[in-house]
């Protein structure tokens, strides 16, 4: 059985924010179990990070995967980052399948892992950091149900925090809302879509986003919040830094 004080599980660990978060945690001496669907991406992370990173190629939306990984590794930190790239199109050009894509991946996976964290449960003093999105504050008209799916994640994390308090579990639940950034594949697709909508080129659009949020900033925020027992319930993060909400 793993030492919970030095073990973290990161979903969506193969690229983007999840990869950066995994790297920061391993650098800090935490053993990371990284979940992603694409085995090739996980192998590349393993080659980069070494024995401190344990790859698990699996579908993070599968409740049985969440139950097995939480049960086997007993993490002291759970980082819920997995998500699908939304279909970029205005509402009238979406189908229900494209519109609901992020509900079936982002929200469903957050539900599965949050439920496992409460039911197993994680050890007292553990933390769950869930990545929502800054889109919940302003909407995202070109990404279908993305903002709504991320808003649901924000709510369910708050619900879980209340259940942790009510049951005396002493598990902290924190929501992080990153702004749109061209520094990840998902964000880059969003930037391209919104630049085209405004009739400007990508570089011009990005110039208006300065300072740009980096995966390394998100990773540092996650590691800092995981270690802070007095953290607020939710934060917005941009290239300018971390800001508590509420």
Task: Summarize this structure as a short list of keywords or feature phrases.
single chain, about 250 residues, alpha/beta, 10 helices, globular
Describe what you observe in this structure:
Helix 1 crosses helix 10 (215-227), helix 3 (63-73) packs parallel to helix 5 (101-119) and helix 5 packs parallel to helix 7 (146-167). This protein has an eight-stranded mixed β-sheet with strand order 3-2-1-4-5-6-7-8, sandwiched between helices. With 246 residues, it is α/β, with parallel strands linked by helices. It is built from ten helices and eight strands.
In N-to-C order, the SSE pattern is EHEHEHEHHEHHEHHHEE
Give the termini separation: 38 Å
Instruction: Return the structural class.
Output: alpha/beta
Tell me what portion of residues adopts beta-strand conformation: 15-25%
Q: Spans with pLDDT under 50 lasting ≥5 residues?
A: none
Number of strands: 8
> Total helix count?
10
Q: Mean of residue pLDDT?
A: 96
Helix content: 40-55%
Query: Tell me, what's the shape?
Result: globular
**What characterizes the major β-sheet?**
8 strands, mixed
**What's the Cα radius of gyration?**
17 Å
Q: How are the strands ordered across the major sheet?
A: 3-2-1-4-5-6-7-8
